Design the sequence.
């Protein structure tokens, strides 16, 4: 049974009648245009089709279903041509985007509409591209979710408030489909919260009894329409346990505030500078032009690049306390917090043990004329003091050496055209103020909620 507070939340997050009607008027018009064209069947998918969308959401996903006999090349060419034609029929504002294959994103009567070509296959086992699976998800949830729709709305809003809603590469959280499956499995929002409070790594959920596969992700939710897939594959361990902690907080002190937390606007420049001064560390930000690709392609490359740059700093003696990255519309940012940013000109290099005679002799010969010290022995190994190549972290990050490490392909292409390095207070950026604020003052969603004074009212 739902609490009074949850019923109050539902009144705010259920789509209003005018929202519902407007969305379906737009959807029906688009479906009619697809049918009139005759090259494909149109299908509304996602939360709108399943009636599990939240008030204020403006997303509408419409798939263009083509015969499976069509070649992949023809699907892309014909599908994109049809999507463009439909978009032009309703608006002049649309863009072509690229994931596994191209699709069109359009703004139609205030809605963010994706027109996605796919194959109309007989079963999920016959899919030819990842998006072919989506219609089966829509049918599966639509057939089963009936009495639990409000519970799904609560689960999605709760995850949004926690900051873990979204399976995109940047968020690494809970997709809408995952929320729906969890509500189905636990038969309601409250049972889901109670169960999630006790989740451990390796928790497995299998609605159709397909038997859990040997997935490695911390949460394993077997896709009921495709048993070889983990629906929670995008969920990181961090996001999973932020949700776990948030559930524990809600159970301890239930309140509607957990669904509508105080929005943190981020620090201003002065507050950011004060926070840096309290930490006494050295902060650096690397910025460059955003590659012209979707986040699901760019963000993994940002993370790979960040790890490689951290390795470069560590190899040069600069210990990294924490790092993170973010993708903006025009620029990307990599931030690294160092324990120190300046080092003495000398560094000690350890060579092979003396009992490895051949290599030891090569080491000794190589450094025989070293100006700081000849090779010397400590604990049976050769060692030598060398002149450090970089004594300043900013100089290292400015140097061409940064382009020699394992940067993501498109990140490297962008950085080859130029990058900027900022230090300390100069790292503050209006576009990334929330990201930078969370970085420099890290706190879990529950801890942030407590810090802003949004303590539960204890309503039941």
Sequence:
């Amino acid at each position: 049974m739902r609490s009074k507070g949850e019923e109050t939340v539902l009144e705010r997050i259920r789509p209003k009648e005018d929202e519902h009607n407007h969305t379906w008027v737009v959807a029906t018009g688009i479906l009619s245009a697809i049918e009139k064209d005759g090259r494909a069947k149109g299908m509304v998918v996602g939360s709108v089709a399943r009636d599990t969308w939240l008030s204020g959401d403006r997303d509408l996903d419409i798939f263009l279903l083509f015969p499976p006999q069509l070649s992949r090349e023809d699907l892309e060419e014909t599908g994109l041509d049809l999507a463009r034609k439909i978009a032009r029929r309703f608006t002049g504002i649309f863009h072509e985007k690229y994931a596994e294959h191209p699709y069109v994103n359009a703004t139609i009567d205030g809605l963010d509409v994706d027109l996605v070509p796919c194959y109309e296959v007989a079963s999920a086992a016959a899919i030819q591209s990842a998006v072919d699976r989506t219609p089966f998800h829509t049918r599966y949830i639509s057939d089963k979710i009936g009495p639990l729709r409000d519970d799904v709305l609560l689960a999605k809003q709760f995850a949004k408030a926690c900051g873990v809603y979204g399976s995109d590469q940047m968020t690494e959280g809970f997709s809408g489909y995952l929320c729906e499956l969890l509500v189905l499995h636990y038969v309601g929002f409250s049972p889901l919260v109670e169960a999630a409070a006790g989740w451990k790594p390796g928790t497995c959920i299998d609605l159709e009894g397909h038997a859990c596969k040997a997935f490695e992700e911390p949460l394993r939710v077997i896709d009921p329409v495709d048993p070889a897939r983990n629906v929670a594959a995008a969920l990181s361990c961090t996001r999973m346990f932020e949700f776990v902690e948030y559930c524990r907080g809600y159970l301890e002190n239930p309140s509607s505030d957990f669904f509508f937390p105080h929005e943190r606007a981020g620090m201003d420049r002065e507050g950011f500078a004060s926070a840096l001064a309290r930490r006494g560390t050295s902060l650096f930000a690397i910025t460059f032009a955003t590659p012209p690709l979707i986040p699901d392609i760019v963000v993994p490359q940002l993370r790979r690049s960040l790890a490689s740059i951290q390795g470069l700093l560590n190899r040069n003696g600069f210990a990294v306390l924490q790092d993170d990255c973010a993708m903006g519309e025009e620029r990307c940012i990599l931030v690294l917090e160092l324990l120190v940013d300046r080092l003495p000109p000398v560094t000690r290099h350890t060579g092979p043990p003396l009992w490895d005679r051949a290599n030891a002799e090569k080491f000794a010969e190589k450094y025989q004329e070293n100006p700081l010290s000849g090779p010397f022995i400590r604990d049976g190994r050769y060692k030598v003091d060398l002149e450090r190549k970089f004594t300043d972290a900013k100089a290292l990050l400015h140097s061409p050496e940064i382009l020699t490490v394992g940067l993501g392909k498109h990140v490297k292409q962008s950085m080859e055209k130029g990058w900027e390095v900022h230090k300390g207070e100069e790292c503050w950026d209006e576009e990334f103020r929330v990201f930078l604020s969370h970085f420099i003052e890290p706190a879990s969603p529950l801890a942030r909620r407590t810090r802003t004074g949004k303590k539960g009212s204890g309503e039941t």
Remarks:
- The two ends are 11 Å apart (CA to CA).
